[in-house]
Here is the input.
Amino acid sequence: MAGEISKISLFELNRILKEGIQGLFPSGIWVVAEISDMSINQSGHCYLELIEKADGAESITAKARATIWSFTFRILKPYFESVTGQRFSAGIKILIFVSVEFHEIYGLSLNVKDIDPNYTIGDLARRKQEIINRLTAEGVFELNKELELPEIGRRIAVISSETAAGYGDFIKQLKNNSRRFKFKVTLFNTVMQGEATERSFINAMEQIYYNYSNFDLVVIIRGGGSQAELNCFNNYNIAFHITQFPIPVFTGIGHDRDQTIADLVAHTSLKTPTAVAEYILSLMDETADYFEQLENQVISMSSNVVSECKNYLIDLSNSIRNLNKWQISSLQNKYALLESSYHQKIRNILPQRKSILNQLQHQFEARLKYNLLMHKLRVNRLNQLLPVTIKTLLKKERIKMLAADSLISAFNPVNILKRGYSITYLNGKTLHSPMQVKDGDTIETRLAEGCITSIIENLSEKVN
Amino acid sequence: MEKKKITYKEAIGEIEEIISKMENEEMDVDDLTLKVKRAALLLKFCREKLYDTESEVDKIIKEIEKDQKG
Here is the structure.
């Protein structure tokens, strides 16, 4: 018969389960799990929700509740956090020593007795490395680091928690600059612990991004928080956003040992907010130093050129003034040189010339003597010849004269008259022809010893 | 067409160029005067950028643009 179904009460069931379960791991068991949720009540007891996710996936494959009683938790938490440098909170994977309990009413629960922080360290390190690898593989790891620093980083977007002391320190340090730089700092408030961190961070970055042309730098700072809370900066999304940012990001989140991923991908990572402010100041100082150097160069060079021009003009006017003096003294020198060389030459030449002159003189005198001698000789000879010549000449002339004389004598009319001739005149004129006279004319006839006057009686025509 | 505003970096670059020209080339006095004037303007701009507020900078950028045209 479909008789009685075997049945027990719930309590019975649970009691059996309890015995069974508690018998499985009588002394406890080390379990690896991820904290998905955590709460602490007033008494200091910690209630955890533990899960396990499939590798890489988001789907949950196991879940359990766990408790840490306050007397344990009081010790366990600081111990864990000091060793790992990590906050004991949701999101981390832990290796815990638990006792498995089953309560009739509350069901399965794990009671945490102990924890091995090294597992978490290892796990965190592994996860961190995974994210780094992923960012590297995506080629974005260096992007922000490769950005050029602005020449002037005065407009700063700060992502911080307003309440954190870090922001105050940062502002104070910035104001404390000797060169009276004025910085324009805009605060973008975020949550820096717990689950809301990622979302709030990315919101802040997006806000900055919409106005990124109004900023020169982004600064992420956090001051005075515990080391344990740094894990939010190992978040992939936050790191990714930093790499993509178009302006340089500086971090000063106060890490003690390892840098977080945010530190690694940021353009520059510094230890503290104060250090960030100092770094920003040093950049400005560098720029300002270089600027002042250029300024001084321009000033000194232009004043150099001006004074060079001045000097040049002065030189010109001096050299014009000096030119005359110089010309004169140079001419004087030239003249003196010429004079002395002239004198020297004279001194040299004079004896020379004198001797030549002497020579010539001697020659001249000799020649003169010679000529005189020649003349004398000639004169002598002439002297000798002269009387003879004269005698000869005179003789010749005498002969000539005698000849002429006799000729003349012959022709002398007196002599002719003596010969018996006569000259007939008519009125004083000599008659050549009978035609010159007519009958009756009175003519005179001159004879050698006197004159006859006649009158013509008869003209005869016969003429021999 | 909106002309791109001169940046601090560009201004510094131009000043460096002027300095190097002053060191190397022979500048006549007129050229020098012009260059020094320009350098002074650029220096003023950079000084404002370094130490003061945007409003002053805008004023000087206008002066620089005027200077470039003229």
Chain A touches chain B through 19 residues (CB under 8 Å). The domain at 141-288 of chain A is CATH 3.40.50.9100 (Rossmann fold). The mean pLDDT of chain A is 87.
